[in-house]
Amino acid sequence: MVVSIETTMKHPKRGFIKLEDTVAVTGYEIFGEGGRGWNLGGSALASLAAVQ
Fold this sequence. Notes:
The protein is an alpha+beta fold. It has one helix spanning about 45-50, and strands at about 1-10, 15-25.
């Protein structure tokens, strides 16, 4: 997959500057996957009731 990234910034002396780049995505890495599972669905109310 090829992703094109474009943005524009305003320079005080040179006016608007356009920045462009193209990235070829050849793989993936999932960030934050190790943090999953710490919150079990439906357990929040049971935990809250136990504290009170």
